[in-house]
Amino acid sequence: MHDVMELVKLIEVLVTGRITGSTAREITCISQDSRKVSEGCLFVAVQGAQTDGHLFISQASRNGAAAVVYQKGCLASEQEMEALSGNTTFIEVGDSQLALAMLADAWYGHPSANMILTGVTGTNGKTTTATLLYRMFGQLGHKCGLISTIAYYIGQEEIPATNTTPDALTINSLLDQMLRRGCTHCFMEVSSHSVVQHRITGLHFAGGIFTNLTHDHLDYHKTFAAYRDAKKRFFDMLPAGAFALVNEDDRNGKIMVQNCPARTYTYACRKMADYNARIVEHTVDGMQLMIDGVEVWSSFIGMHNAYNLLAVYACAAILKEPREETLRILSGLTTVRGRMEYVRGGENLTAVVDYSHTPDALKNVLLTLRELVRPGQELVCVVGCGGNRDKTKRPLMARIADQYADLCIFTSDNPRFEDPEDILDQMIAGLTPEQQDRHLRITDRRQAIRTAIKMARPGAVVLVAGKGHETYQDIKGVRNHFDDKEILTEILKTG
Predict the structure, then answer these.
(1) How many degrees, rounded to 5, is the angle at CA 115 between CA 110 and CA 120?
(2) By CB distance 3.0 to 4.6 Å, which of 34, 56, 169, 316 could disulfide with 321?
(3) Could you tell me the pTM of the whole model?
Protein backbone atom coordinates (compact mmCIF):
# COMPACT_ATOMS: atom_id res chain seq x y z
CA MET A 1 0.00 0.00 0.00
CA HIS A 2 1.19 3.53 -0.75
CA ASP A 3 1.29 6.04 2.12
CA VAL A 4 1.36 8.91 -0.35
CA MET A 5 0.99 8.87 -4.13
CA GLU A 6 1.07 11.59 -6.74
CA LEU A 7 -2.40 12.14 -8.19
CA VAL A 8 -1.02 12.34 -11.72
CA LYS A 9 0.59 8.90 -11.24
CA LEU A 10 -2.45 7.34 -9.55
CA ILE A 11 -4.92 8.30 -12.29
CA GLU A 12 -2.75 6.74 -15.02
CA VAL A 13 -4.95 3.60 -14.61
CA LEU A 14 -8.09 5.59 -15.58
CA VAL A 15 -9.57 6.67 -18.87
CA THR A 16 -10.32 10.24 -17.91
CA GLY A 17 -12.43 12.94 -19.46
CA ARG A 18 -12.37 16.56 -18.34
CA ILE A 19 -9.94 17.42 -15.54
CA THR A 20 -10.50 20.67 -13.63
CA GLY A 21 -7.65 21.75 -11.33
CA SER A 22 -4.09 20.58 -10.78
CA THR A 23 -3.02 16.93 -10.85
CA ALA A 24 0.28 17.82 -9.13
CA ARG A 25 -1.15 16.89 -5.75
CA GLU A 26 -0.22 14.29 -3.16
CA ILE A 27 -2.93 11.75 -2.31
CA THR A 28 -2.91 10.27 1.20
CA CYS A 29 -5.95 7.95 0.99
CA ILE A 30 -8.92 6.93 -1.17
CA SER A 31 -12.54 6.86 0.00
CA GLN A 32 -16.04 6.50 -1.42
CA ASP A 33 -17.58 7.69 1.88
CA SER A 34 -17.50 11.48 2.25
CA ARG A 35 -17.69 11.12 6.06
CA LYS A 36 -14.33 9.31 6.05
CA VAL A 37 -12.58 11.87 3.85
CA SER A 38 -9.65 13.69 5.45
CA GLU A 39 -6.94 16.10 4.28
CA GLY A 40 -5.34 14.91 1.05
CA CYS A 41 -7.91 12.22 0.31
CA LEU A 42 -9.16 11.21 -3.14
CA PHE A 43 -12.96 10.97 -2.99
CA VAL A 44 -14.64 8.72 -5.58
CA ALA A 45 -18.32 9.60 -6.03
CA VAL A 46 -20.23 6.39 -6.74
CA GLN A 47 -23.93 5.90 -7.42
CA GLY A 48 -25.03 3.24 -4.93
CA ALA A 49 -28.30 1.38 -4.39
CA GLN A 50 -29.23 3.59 -1.42
CA THR A 51 -27.34 6.85 -1.93
CA ASP A 52 -25.50 8.76 -4.66
CA GLY A 53 -21.99 9.84 -3.73
CA HIS A 54 -22.26 12.80 -6.11
CA LEU A 55 -24.60 14.46 -3.61
CA PHE A 56 -21.78 14.58 -1.05
CA ILE A 57 -18.99 16.10 -3.13
CA SER A 58 -19.24 19.45 -1.32
CA GLN A 59 -18.96 17.70 2.05
CA ALA A 60 -15.91 15.74 0.85
CA SER A 61 -14.27 18.95 -0.33
CA ARG A 62 -14.97 20.67 3.02
CA ASN A 63 -13.40 17.65 4.77
CA GLY A 64 -10.16 18.23 2.86
CA ALA A 65 -10.47 16.13 -0.32
CA ALA A 66 -7.53 16.89 -2.59
CA ALA A 67 -9.39 15.44 -5.59
CA VAL A 68 -12.79 14.10 -6.62
CA VAL A 69 -13.46 11.45 -9.26
CA TYR A 70 -16.99 11.80 -10.61
CA GLN A 71 -19.06 10.08 -13.28
CA LYS A 72 -19.87 11.97 -16.46
CA GLY A 73 -23.41 13.35 -16.36
CA CYS A 74 -23.83 12.81 -12.61
CA LEU A 75 -22.41 16.05 -11.22
CA ALA A 76 -25.12 18.07 -9.47
CA SER A 77 -24.01 21.32 -11.10
CA GLU A 78 -21.11 22.82 -12.99
CA GLN A 79 -21.27 25.80 -10.58
CA GLU A 80 -20.50 23.50 -7.65
CA MET A 81 -17.38 22.20 -9.38
CA GLU A 82 -16.20 25.68 -10.33
CA ALA A 83 -16.77 26.94 -6.77
CA LEU A 84 -14.76 24.10 -5.23
CA SER A 85 -12.03 23.66 -7.84
CA GLY A 86 -9.67 26.07 -6.07
CA ASN A 87 -9.24 23.52 -3.27
CA THR A 88 -10.19 20.30 -5.04
CA THR A 89 -9.25 18.79 -8.38
CA PHE A 90 -12.19 17.30 -10.34
CA ILE A 91 -11.63 14.27 -12.59
CA GLU A 92 -14.37 13.04 -14.91
CA VAL A 93 -14.69 9.34 -15.81
CA GLY A 94 -17.22 7.28 -17.76
CA ASP A 95 -17.96 4.88 -14.87
CA SER A 96 -16.96 5.80 -11.31
CA GLN A 97 -17.52 2.25 -9.96
CA LEU A 98 -15.01 0.96 -12.51
CA ALA A 99 -12.67 3.84 -11.64
CA LEU A 100 -12.86 2.98 -7.91
CA ALA A 101 -11.84 -0.63 -8.61
CA MET A 102 -8.88 0.38 -10.77
CA LEU A 103 -7.75 3.02 -8.27
CA ALA A 104 -8.04 0.60 -5.32
CA ASP A 105 -5.92 -2.01 -7.12
CA ALA A 106 -3.26 0.60 -7.96
CA TRP A 107 -3.26 2.22 -4.50
CA TYR A 108 -2.65 -1.10 -2.76
CA GLY A 109 0.08 -2.12 -5.25
CA HIS A 110 -1.86 -4.83 -7.15
CA PRO A 111 -1.94 -7.34 -4.24
CA SER A 112 -3.98 -10.00 -6.09
CA ALA A 113 -1.18 -10.37 -8.66
CA ASN A 114 1.15 -11.53 -5.91
CA MET A 115 -0.90 -14.42 -4.52
CA ILE A 116 -3.02 -17.33 -5.72
CA LEU A 117 -6.53 -15.84 -5.68
CA THR A 118 -9.40 -18.25 -6.46
CA GLY A 119 -12.97 -17.01 -6.92
CA VAL A 120 -16.07 -19.15 -6.33
CA THR A 121 -19.34 -18.15 -7.99
CA GLY A 122 -22.79 -19.69 -8.44
CA THR A 123 -26.20 -19.50 -6.76
CA ASN A 124 -25.66 -22.10 -4.04
CA GLY A 125 -22.54 -23.59 -2.48
CA LYS A 126 -20.25 -20.55 -2.70
CA THR A 127 -19.73 -20.15 1.04
CA THR A 128 -19.24 -23.85 1.74
CA THR A 129 -16.83 -24.34 -1.17
CA ALA A 130 -14.75 -21.22 -0.45
CA THR A 131 -14.60 -21.94 3.30
CA LEU A 132 -13.61 -25.58 2.82
CA LEU A 133 -10.89 -24.56 0.37
CA TYR A 134 -9.55 -22.09 2.94
CA ARG A 135 -9.54 -24.81 5.62
CA MET A 136 -8.05 -27.48 3.36
CA PHE A 137 -5.20 -25.37 2.01
CA GLY A 138 -4.44 -24.24 5.56
CA GLN A 139 -4.04 -27.89 6.54
CA LEU A 140 -1.93 -28.48 3.45
CA GLY A 141 0.57 -26.04 4.94
CA HIS A 142 -0.31 -22.79 3.20
CA LYS A 143 -1.15 -19.54 4.96
CA CYS A 144 -4.52 -18.49 3.51
CA GLY A 145 -7.08 -15.74 3.42
CA LEU A 146 -10.85 -16.03 3.00
CA ILE A 147 -13.43 -13.50 1.80
CA SER A 148 -16.89 -15.00 2.30
CA THR A 149 -20.49 -14.25 3.29
CA ILE A 150 -19.87 -15.43 6.84
CA ALA A 151 -16.50 -13.86 7.64
CA TYR A 152 -13.18 -12.63 6.28
CA TYR A 153 -10.02 -14.39 7.48
CA ILE A 154 -6.42 -13.22 7.35
CA GLY A 155 -4.58 -16.34 8.38
CA GLN A 156 -6.40 -17.35 11.57
CA GLU A 157 -7.71 -13.87 12.39
CA GLU A 158 -11.44 -13.49 11.80
CA ILE A 159 -12.95 -10.18 10.66
CA PRO A 160 -16.79 -9.93 10.58
CA ALA A 161 -18.16 -9.85 7.03
CA THR A 162 -20.39 -7.07 5.70
CA ASN A 163 -21.29 -8.31 2.19
CA THR A 164 -20.93 -11.52 0.18
CA THR A 165 -18.34 -9.63 -1.85
CA PRO A 166 -17.23 -6.33 -0.24
CA ASP A 167 -16.47 -3.11 -2.13
CA ALA A 168 -13.30 -2.80 -4.20
CA LEU A 169 -11.41 -0.76 -1.59
CA THR A 170 -12.16 -3.30 1.16
CA ILE A 171 -11.20 -6.25 -1.07
CA ASN A 172 -7.84 -4.74 -2.01
CA SER A 173 -7.19 -3.67 1.59
CA LEU A 174 -7.86 -7.23 2.78
CA LEU A 175 -5.63 -8.72 0.07
CA ASP A 176 -2.88 -6.24 0.96
CA GLN A 177 -3.11 -7.22 4.66
CA MET A 178 -3.03 -10.91 3.69
CA LEU A 179 0.15 -10.41 1.66
CA ARG A 180 1.82 -8.44 4.46
CA ARG A 181 1.10 -11.31 6.87
CA GLY A 182 2.51 -13.96 4.57
CA CYS A 183 -0.63 -15.38 2.93
CA THR A 184 0.07 -17.15 -0.35
CA HIS A 185 -3.54 -18.12 -1.18
CA CYS A 186 -6.94 -16.45 -0.91
CA PHE A 187 -10.36 -17.96 -1.57
CA MET A 188 -13.18 -15.57 -2.31
CA GLU A 189 -16.90 -15.74 -2.97
CA VAL A 190 -17.82 -13.80 -6.10
CA SER A 191 -21.43 -12.60 -6.21
CA SER A 192 -23.23 -11.54 -9.38
CA HIS A 193 -23.67 -8.05 -7.88
CA SER A 194 -19.91 -7.71 -7.42
CA VAL A 195 -19.28 -8.44 -11.10
CA VAL A 196 -21.85 -5.94 -12.38
CA GLN A 197 -20.75 -3.27 -9.87
CA HIS A 198 -17.04 -3.67 -10.75
CA ARG A 199 -16.08 -4.68 -7.19
CA ILE A 200 -13.73 -7.37 -8.55
CA THR A 201 -12.55 -5.53 -11.68
CA GLY A 202 -8.77 -5.22 -11.77
CA LEU A 203 -8.18 -8.28 -9.58
CA HIS A 204 -5.86 -10.99 -10.92
CA PHE A 205 -7.54 -14.36 -10.37
CA ALA A 206 -5.54 -17.58 -10.57
CA GLY A 207 -8.79 -19.48 -11.03
CA GLY A 208 -12.56 -19.47 -10.89
CA ILE A 209 -15.05 -22.15 -9.77
CA PHE A 210 -18.69 -22.38 -10.90
CA THR A 211 -21.04 -24.29 -8.57
CA ASN A 212 -24.53 -24.02 -10.13
CA LEU A 213 -27.12 -21.53 -11.31
CA THR A 214 -30.72 -21.37 -10.12
CA HIS A 215 -33.45 -18.84 -9.43
CA ASP A 216 -32.15 -15.87 -7.37
CA HIS A 217 -31.54 -12.11 -7.35
CA LEU A 218 -34.10 -11.35 -10.06
CA ASP A 219 -35.07 -8.27 -8.01
CA TYR A 220 -31.67 -6.87 -9.06
CA HIS A 221 -30.92 -8.49 -12.42
CA LYS A 222 -34.59 -8.54 -13.61
CA THR A 223 -34.13 -11.59 -15.87
CA PHE A 224 -32.47 -14.98 -15.46
CA ALA A 225 -30.41 -14.31 -18.61
CA ALA A 226 -28.99 -11.11 -17.10
CA TYR A 227 -28.19 -12.98 -13.86
CA ARG A 228 -26.47 -15.79 -15.81
CA ASP A 229 -24.53 -13.30 -17.93
CA ALA A 230 -23.27 -11.53 -14.80
CA LYS A 231 -21.82 -14.82 -13.59
CA LYS A 232 -20.31 -15.49 -17.01
CA ARG A 233 -18.56 -12.11 -17.02
CA PHE A 234 -16.42 -13.35 -14.12
CA PHE A 235 -15.10 -16.21 -16.29
CA ASP A 236 -14.62 -13.87 -19.25
CA MET A 237 -12.31 -11.82 -16.98
CA LEU A 238 -9.98 -14.73 -16.17
CA PRO A 239 -6.51 -14.45 -17.74
CA ALA A 240 -5.10 -17.09 -20.10
CA GLY A 241 -2.89 -18.60 -17.41
CA ALA A 242 -5.77 -19.13 -14.96
CA PHE A 243 -8.09 -22.14 -14.56
CA ALA A 244 -11.89 -22.33 -14.84
CA LEU A 245 -13.52 -25.24 -12.97
CA VAL A 246 -17.21 -25.73 -13.76
CA ASN A 247 -20.00 -28.09 -12.73
CA GLU A 248 -20.63 -30.25 -15.81
CA ASP A 249 -23.97 -31.44 -14.41
CA ASP A 250 -25.37 -27.90 -14.48
CA ARG A 251 -26.50 -26.94 -17.99
CA ASN A 252 -25.11 -23.43 -17.45
CA GLY A 253 -21.60 -24.78 -16.84
CA LYS A 254 -20.77 -24.86 -20.55
CA ILE A 255 -22.14 -21.34 -21.01
CA MET A 256 -19.84 -19.99 -18.29
CA VAL A 257 -16.71 -21.03 -20.18
CA GLN A 258 -17.76 -20.23 -23.75
CA ASN A 259 -14.84 -18.22 -25.19
CA CYS A 260 -13.22 -18.21 -21.74
CA PRO A 261 -9.46 -17.56 -22.09
CA ALA A 262 -8.59 -19.73 -19.05
CA ARG A 263 -7.83 -23.47 -19.02
CA THR A 264 -11.16 -25.25 -18.49
CA TYR A 265 -11.80 -28.23 -16.20
CA THR A 266 -15.07 -29.98 -15.31
CA TYR A 267 -16.45 -31.85 -12.30
CA ALA A 268 -19.64 -33.91 -12.05
CA CYS A 269 -21.59 -36.51 -10.08
CA ARG A 270 -23.84 -37.64 -12.94
CA LYS A 271 -21.87 -37.18 -16.18
CA MET A 272 -18.33 -38.01 -17.17
CA ALA A 273 -15.98 -35.15 -16.33
CA ASP A 274 -12.35 -34.40 -15.51
CA TYR A 275 -13.19 -35.00 -11.83
CA ASN A 276 -16.00 -37.32 -10.72
CA ALA A 277 -17.73 -38.34 -7.50
CA ARG A 278 -20.72 -40.42 -6.44
CA ILE A 279 -22.40 -41.22 -3.15
CA VAL A 280 -21.83 -44.85 -2.15
CA GLU A 281 -23.66 -44.73 1.17
CA HIS A 282 -25.72 -42.05 2.89
CA THR A 283 -26.72 -41.81 6.58
CA VAL A 284 -27.80 -39.08 8.98
CA ASP A 285 -24.19 -38.99 10.25
CA GLY A 286 -22.50 -38.53 6.87
CA MET A 287 -21.78 -40.19 3.54
CA GLN A 288 -19.31 -42.50 1.86
CA LEU A 289 -18.11 -40.90 -1.37
CA MET A 290 -16.23 -42.35 -4.31
CA ILE A 291 -13.99 -39.52 -5.52
CA ASP A 292 -11.90 -40.29 -8.59
CA GLY A 293 -11.91 -43.98 -7.71
CA VAL A 294 -11.08 -43.59 -4.02
CA GLU A 295 -13.61 -44.10 -1.20
CA VAL A 296 -13.76 -41.18 1.22
CA TRP A 297 -15.95 -40.81 4.32
CA SER A 298 -17.36 -37.34 5.04
CA SER A 299 -19.49 -36.00 7.89
CA PHE A 300 -21.35 -33.86 5.35
CA ILE A 301 -24.70 -35.03 3.99
CA GLY A 302 -26.59 -34.35 0.76
CA MET A 303 -25.88 -34.43 -2.94
CA HIS A 304 -25.25 -30.67 -2.94
CA ASN A 305 -22.40 -31.25 -0.48
CA ALA A 306 -21.01 -34.05 -2.66
CA TYR A 307 -20.63 -31.37 -5.37
CA ASN A 308 -19.06 -28.91 -2.94
CA LEU A 309 -16.51 -31.48 -1.70
CA LEU A 310 -15.71 -32.58 -5.25
CA ALA A 311 -15.10 -28.96 -6.30
CA VAL A 312 -12.71 -28.55 -3.35
CA TYR A 313 -10.83 -31.74 -4.29
CA ALA A 314 -10.67 -30.76 -7.98
CA CYS A 315 -9.34 -27.28 -7.18
CA ALA A 316 -6.60 -28.80 -5.02
CA ALA A 317 -5.72 -31.24 -7.82
CA ILE A 318 -5.54 -28.44 -10.41
CA LEU A 319 -3.23 -26.49 -8.10
CA LYS A 320 -1.05 -29.61 -7.89
CA GLU A 321 -1.57 -30.46 -4.22
CA PRO A 322 -0.74 -34.10 -3.25
CA ARG A 323 -3.73 -36.37 -3.95
CA GLU A 324 -3.53 -38.68 -0.91
CA GLU A 325 -3.08 -35.82 1.54
CA THR A 326 -5.92 -33.87 -0.08
CA LEU A 327 -8.31 -36.82 0.27
CA ARG A 328 -7.23 -37.40 3.89
CA ILE A 329 -7.90 -33.76 4.80
CA LEU A 330 -11.16 -33.76 2.82
CA SER A 331 -12.45 -36.61 4.95
CA GLY A 332 -11.87 -34.61 8.14
CA LEU A 333 -13.52 -31.35 7.05
CA THR A 334 -16.56 -30.32 9.07
CA THR A 335 -19.75 -28.36 8.43
CA VAL A 336 -19.61 -24.64 7.73
CA ARG A 337 -21.57 -22.44 10.14
CA GLY A 338 -25.24 -22.22 9.19
CA ARG A 339 -24.96 -24.81 6.40
CA MET A 340 -26.78 -28.05 7.29
CA GLU A 341 -25.66 -27.43 10.85
CA TYR A 342 -27.02 -29.84 13.44
CA VAL A 343 -28.19 -28.32 16.71
CA ARG A 344 -27.75 -30.70 19.62
CA GLY A 345 -29.89 -30.76 22.75
CA GLY A 346 -33.04 -32.61 21.87
CA GLU A 347 -33.26 -36.28 22.84
CA ASN A 348 -36.32 -37.01 20.74
CA LEU A 349 -35.67 -34.97 17.61
CA THR A 350 -32.98 -33.69 15.27
CA ALA A 351 -32.77 -29.94 14.58
CA VAL A 352 -30.96 -28.48 11.57
CA VAL A 353 -30.16 -24.84 10.72
CA ASP A 354 -29.52 -24.02 7.06
CA TYR A 355 -29.03 -20.85 5.01
CA SER A 356 -31.24 -22.17 2.18
CA HIS A 357 -32.99 -18.98 1.00
CA THR A 358 -33.51 -19.85 -2.67
CA PRO A 359 -36.00 -22.38 -4.10
CA ASP A 360 -33.26 -24.73 -5.30
CA ALA A 361 -31.30 -24.60 -2.03
CA LEU A 362 -34.44 -25.29 0.01
CA LYS A 363 -35.35 -28.19 -2.27
CA ASN A 364 -31.83 -29.68 -1.99
CA VAL A 365 -31.86 -29.55 1.81
CA LEU A 366 -35.39 -30.93 2.17
CA LEU A 367 -34.69 -33.70 -0.35
CA THR A 368 -31.53 -34.66 1.56
CA LEU A 369 -33.37 -34.75 4.90
CA ARG A 370 -36.34 -36.58 3.33
CA GLU A 371 -33.99 -39.34 2.14
CA LEU A 372 -32.54 -39.69 5.64
CA VAL A 373 -35.70 -39.75 7.76
CA ARG A 374 -36.87 -43.26 8.53
CA PRO A 375 -40.43 -44.50 7.82
CA GLY A 376 -42.81 -42.92 10.31
CA GLN A 377 -40.47 -40.04 11.13
CA GLU A 378 -41.73 -36.52 10.52
CA LEU A 379 -39.97 -33.72 8.62
CA VAL A 380 -40.88 -30.22 9.85
CA CYS A 381 -39.80 -27.03 8.06
CA VAL A 382 -39.75 -23.45 9.40
CA VAL A 383 -39.17 -21.02 6.52
CA GLY A 384 -39.75 -17.44 5.39
CA CYS A 385 -38.57 -15.06 2.67
CA GLY A 386 -36.55 -11.85 2.90
CA GLY A 387 -38.08 -8.44 2.26
CA ASN A 388 -37.01 -6.05 -0.52
CA ARG A 389 -35.65 -8.97 -2.52
CA ASP A 390 -36.81 -11.16 -5.42
CA LYS A 391 -40.59 -11.51 -4.89
CA THR A 392 -41.06 -14.14 -7.62
CA LYS A 393 -39.40 -16.84 -5.52
CA ARG A 394 -41.80 -16.48 -2.58
CA PRO A 395 -44.65 -18.71 -3.84
CA LEU A 396 -42.04 -21.19 -5.16
CA MET A 397 -40.46 -21.49 -1.71
CA ALA A 398 -43.85 -22.21 -0.13
CA ARG A 399 -44.68 -24.88 -2.74
CA ILE A 400 -41.31 -26.60 -2.27
CA ALA A 401 -41.72 -26.60 1.51
CA ASP A 402 -45.22 -28.09 1.15
CA GLN A 403 -44.01 -30.74 -1.31
CA TYR A 404 -41.14 -32.11 0.77
CA ALA A 405 -42.04 -31.42 4.43
CA ASP A 406 -44.82 -33.02 6.46
CA LEU A 407 -45.47 -29.82 8.41
CA CYS A 408 -44.50 -26.29 7.38
CA ILE A 409 -44.54 -23.20 9.53
CA PHE A 410 -44.27 -20.08 7.40
CA THR A 411 -42.71 -17.16 9.25
CA SER A 412 -40.77 -13.92 8.99
CA ASP A 413 -37.17 -13.91 7.72
CA ASN A 414 -35.50 -10.50 7.30
CA PRO A 415 -38.53 -8.33 6.38
CA ARG A 416 -36.31 -5.25 5.95
CA PHE A 417 -38.65 -2.41 4.90
CA GLU A 418 -41.57 -4.62 3.86
CA ASP A 419 -44.52 -5.66 5.99
CA PRO A 420 -43.84 -9.31 6.99
CA GLU A 421 -47.56 -10.07 6.61
CA ASP A 422 -47.40 -9.03 2.94
CA ILE A 423 -44.41 -11.32 2.37
CA LEU A 424 -46.27 -14.25 3.96
CA ASP A 425 -49.37 -13.48 1.87
CA GLN A 426 -47.22 -13.75 -1.28
CA MET A 427 -45.64 -17.02 -0.11
CA ILE A 428 -48.95 -18.63 0.77
CA ALA A 429 -50.52 -17.45 -2.50
CA GLY A 430 -48.47 -20.24 -4.09
CA LEU A 431 -50.48 -22.89 -2.22
CA THR A 432 -53.95 -24.31 -2.82
CA PRO A 433 -56.54 -23.83 -0.01
CA GLU A 434 -56.06 -27.49 0.93
CA GLN A 435 -52.27 -27.03 1.21
CA GLN A 436 -52.74 -23.86 3.26
CA ASP A 437 -55.00 -25.70 5.71
CA ARG A 438 -52.35 -28.28 6.60
CA HIS A 439 -49.65 -25.75 7.45
CA LEU A 440 -49.23 -22.94 9.99
CA ARG A 441 -48.48 -19.25 9.62
CA ILE A 442 -46.70 -17.67 12.60
CA THR A 443 -45.13 -14.31 11.83
CA ASP A 444 -42.96 -14.13 14.96
CA ARG A 445 -39.91 -16.23 14.05
CA ARG A 446 -38.99 -17.14 17.63
CA GLN A 447 -42.54 -18.32 18.27
CA ALA A 448 -42.54 -20.24 14.97
CA ILE A 449 -39.37 -22.13 15.98
CA ARG A 450 -40.77 -22.84 19.45
CA THR A 451 -44.03 -24.13 17.94
CA ALA A 452 -42.16 -26.40 15.51
CA ILE A 453 -40.25 -28.01 18.40
CA LYS A 454 -43.41 -28.37 20.51
CA MET A 455 -45.48 -29.88 17.70
CA ALA A 456 -42.81 -32.22 16.30
CA ARG A 457 -43.45 -35.87 17.05
CA PRO A 458 -40.72 -37.98 18.75
CA GLY A 459 -37.93 -38.77 16.27
CA ALA A 460 -38.80 -35.84 13.98
CA VAL A 461 -36.29 -33.77 12.00
CA VAL A 462 -36.89 -30.00 12.28
CA LEU A 463 -35.31 -27.75 9.64
CA VAL A 464 -35.09 -24.00 10.33
CA ALA A 465 -34.26 -22.51 6.93
CA GLY A 466 -33.30 -19.17 5.44
CA LYS A 467 -30.98 -17.35 7.84
CA GLY A 468 -28.25 -19.90 8.61
CA HIS A 469 -25.18 -18.14 10.03
CA GLU A 470 -26.90 -14.76 10.44
CA THR A 471 -27.12 -13.43 14.00
CA TYR A 472 -29.66 -10.69 13.33
CA GLN A 473 -33.13 -10.01 11.96
CA ASP A 474 -33.30 -6.94 9.71
CA ILE A 475 -36.49 -4.95 10.49
CA LYS A 476 -37.06 -1.38 9.24
CA GLY A 477 -33.33 -0.74 8.85
CA VAL A 478 -32.45 -2.04 12.33
CA ARG A 479 -30.51 -5.29 12.82
CA ASN A 480 -31.99 -6.88 15.93
CA HIS A 481 -30.03 -9.75 17.50
CA PHE A 482 -31.55 -13.03 16.30
CA ASP A 483 -29.71 -16.34 15.92
CA ASP A 484 -31.67 -19.43 14.80
CA LYS A 485 -29.08 -21.79 16.29
CA GLU A 486 -29.00 -19.95 19.61
CA ILE A 487 -32.81 -19.96 19.87
CA LEU A 488 -33.06 -23.64 18.93
CA THR A 489 -30.40 -24.57 21.49
CA GLU A 490 -32.22 -22.61 24.20
CA ILE A 491 -35.63 -24.16 23.39
CA LEU A 492 -34.20 -27.69 23.17
CA LYS A 493 -32.52 -27.34 26.55
CA THR A 494 -35.29 -25.56 28.48
CA GLY A 495 -38.31 -27.05 26.71
Answers:
(1) 100
(2) 316
(3) 0.84
